[in-house]
Amino acid sequence: MLRGGYLSSDMNVDQIRELYSAAPFKPFEIALTNGAAVRVVHPEFMSFSPDYRTVHVYEVAGGSKHIDVKLVVALNELENGARPRKRKR
Prior knowledge:
The chain is mostly beta strands and 89 residues long. It has one domain: SH3 type barrels.
């Protein structure tokens, strides 16, 4: 579910780093020029290349995506998806 987002023709790595390092972390989606979207569900599932030109996203089910930052067209914050905890009596 979309909660907020950034949309820019010249998406830069600073905007990605801002969502990545937010405290508390909120899941987000990286939209690409080809229409694909890659979800980042936890900060430990994402890393940057040393020159910050490539983002690596590791999927929960296995595998990974290597994304050139120049191909990112939007960043969408997602709902956390966590279930509310039941209170113990």
